[in-house]
């Protein structure tokens, strides 16, 4: 075992049924080392490695050409985003298990093996690599991730997990069902975390250590953070619209009732028109939620039959 690599539990499971998808955009500083580590790491022998060059403008593609006989390379002529790169990789892969891996040197091959083996040994639908306390953290991203963490906890009904980890593995037949729901750019990791939980798929977590990335991140903190929050809202509306519309409708109904009763008791002129409008508005929101919930149910039933 190479120096600096964590210990892994060796099992009879092989990597012949595993596809590793690596999205890469302007990763000339780290992509060569990343691929070499995966190819040289014995427990990963037999795995299919698919790298998606997502419209890189640096020398990423030239570096990938050096490995063309040992890996599969997908070329996007323009930058389409992380989610689109993942979708292209899933469409190309030919194995039963699909794993995501970053191109910037943050992940370790041994952690990837542990995630895959956890999925195999327990016959899971998905497994997520959860970053430990000893992982490297970008200080300028702490606040944004904290806000997103609480938004995701609300969206997932209090489930606390590493929603944004880029190291994860899925059964291909499970992941394929949701490819059309993945955002084209930032947020694919977050959205799949919610999709797996909301879809009641069997999953687990494995502790991993994330290292300092090589090169500059292409993530735009405020812009991509807002996109992720909007995407989370879209997923909640797809699976549990009443989680939003129900409490909101009840709030306006109660607000209108309290206001109307207070006005009637203090002024003795009955319930004012504004109170009635607020109550009706709350009822409309509530029943909109019921209608959308019925549409959501039909969409989920259709989604169960989707394949690429």
Walkthrough of the structure:
The protein is α/β, with parallel strands linked by helices. It folds into 2 domains: about 20-240, Spore Coat Polysaccharide Biosynthesis Protein SpsA, Chain A; about 240-305. Helix content is about 45%, strand content about 15%. The chain is built from 10 helices and 7 strands. The protein has helices at about 30-40, 60-65, 80-90, 110-120, 140-155, 170-175, 190-200, 220-240, 240-265, 275-305; strands at about 20-25, 50-55, 70-75, 95-100, 125-130, 170, 205-210. It has a 7-stranded mixed beta sheet, sandwiched between helices. Helix 5 packs parallel to helix 8 and helix 7 packs parallel to helix 8.
The succession of helices and strands, N to C, reads EHEHEHEHEHEHHEHHH
Strand content: 5-15%
Write out the strand line-up for the largest beta sheet, numbering strands in chain order: 3-2-1-4-6-5-7
- What is the structural class? alpha/beta
CATH topology of the largest domain: Spore Coat Polysaccharide Biosynthesis Protein SpsA, Chain A
Shape: elongated
Tally the structural domains. Answer: 2
CATH architecture of the largest domain, by name, is Alpha-Beta Complex
Helix % is 40-55%
Largest sheet: 7 strands, mixed
Low-pLDDT ranges: 1-5
Q: Name the quaternary structure.
A: single chain
Count of β-strands: 7
Query: What would CATH call the class of the largest domain?
Result: Alpha Beta
Quick one: CATH superfamily of the largest domain? Spore Coat Polysaccharide Biosynthesis Protein SpsA, Chain A
Mean pLDDT, nearest integer? Answer: 83
Number of helices: 10
Q: Provide the gyration radius in Å.
A: 23 Å
Report how far apart the termini are.
38 Å
